[in-house]
Fold this sequence. Notes:
The complex is a heterodimer of chains A (258) and B (67).
Chain A: H1 2-16, H2 19-39, H3 41-48, H4 64-87, H5 92-97, H6 99-105, H7 110-144, H8 149-176, H9 180-200, H10 212-222, H11 227-257
Chain B: H1 2-33, H2 41-50, H3 54-63
Amino acid sequence: MQWSTLFKKEMLENWHNKKWIWVPLVIILIAILDPISNYYLPQIIESVGGVPDGTVIELPEFTPAEVVMMSLGQFSSLGVLIIVLMSMGTIAGERKSGVSELILVKPVSFKNYITAKWAALLVIVWGSLFIGMLASWYYTNLLYGELSLTALLQIVFFYGLWFMLVISLSIFYNTLFKTPGLVAFLTIITIMLMSVITQVFAHVLEWSPNNLSSHIFEMLMTDSIPSDLIGSAIVTIAISIILVAASILTFKNKELAE
Amino acid sequence: MQEFFDAINWAVIAPVLVIQGILIIIAMIDWAKADNTNGPKWMWFFIIIFVNIFGPILYFIFGRSQR
Lengths: 258, 67
């Protein structure tokens, strides 16, 4: 009961600060950037000029799966950046301005406070990812070729797990530090470190969350869900749960210490 | 043939322009209602209007002050 009140408060707040409007729109832009620009690449090269007459520009024909991977590639960089910047102040900002004290003066459990925030962010991000991929899917079907709706839903679900991990990381740092900028910085550094570690120990870390998108590509190519994708998904979910649990613990200790 | 190509072209590009337009409008409404922003208010006006695509996003992330 208390949880749903807090959750509704978060949803309302995300509506007031316009996150519900700008995050989906920005994610759509990010998703359709590459499919469109790659489609018009020949025209762009032609209009820029500098190519001798009679030159035939041979550009690779992209398959729908490759186009989807372009969108996911942009999500991994720009999309993650947007999510981190959007979530950096969710708790840290409230603690700085003293709002969290107003809430926590009431008998609100730390667990409910943290998980309500986490869930509200998750709904925005998963919703935006769905809308963004829908836009990318529209362009893929329009410009490149058929991609099934089932494949799209699978992509949204599995890639959403990666975004879930990003949110969990951000929430975790939010409970540790009061400065939103520091939270964003540390979240991004951690994600970069994870990707370096995954690359260095590639042969043992087949189930690393960072491999989610390459496993998704495999799924699109083979038209079946590879076991490595399931493995990565489970690892990602597990890490997220651990991070949220750790957030609740650190937040409890911090608040009680103050 | 040329006309046909132009028609396709617009169907592809228009959504991008529409999304950018919505972002600018929403950012401007929020900006007009805001009592104060992080940094001078007039500065954000120019950022929202003149910085392509990223202007409104920058405003939403950095410009809005907490309450």
